[in-house]
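Suppose a colleague, Dr. K., hands you the sequence of a protein chain of 125 amino acids and asks what its three-dimensional shape might be. Before reaching for any lab equipment, you can write down a predicted structure in token form. Begin with the sequence itself:
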Amino acid sequence: MSDIFIDQAGYIKIETNAEYRFDIYKAFKGALFVDAGNIWLVNEDPQRVGGKFHSKTFISEFAMGIGVGFRFDFTFIVVRFDVAFPLRKPYLPEGDRWVVDNIDFWSGYSRNENSVWNIAIGYPF
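The predicted structure, expressed as tokens, is then:
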């Protein structure tokens, strides 16, 4: 069974997103996207070791992912269905953080361990 990560809070948040949206058919739309970033603490916390922001190393602690989504855009409401795959996991040991090679669409294990599904209402930005 995979680990369940509870959302973590932080005082410093850096993120960037790029999304390409395109029409498929009438109210049915598509999107390709990439996300990168992370969150940090201002002070050390013994319960979240390694969470403190360091100006010299924060870029090496960025997570990165890519994804595809479908949107039902009814003008007054947008319903989104997205699936994303991590490209970089900053919590892994140095040298093992890029996980592009772990994406295998034909493997059930890889789809379960390396995909994130989201259903949402409205656009994220």
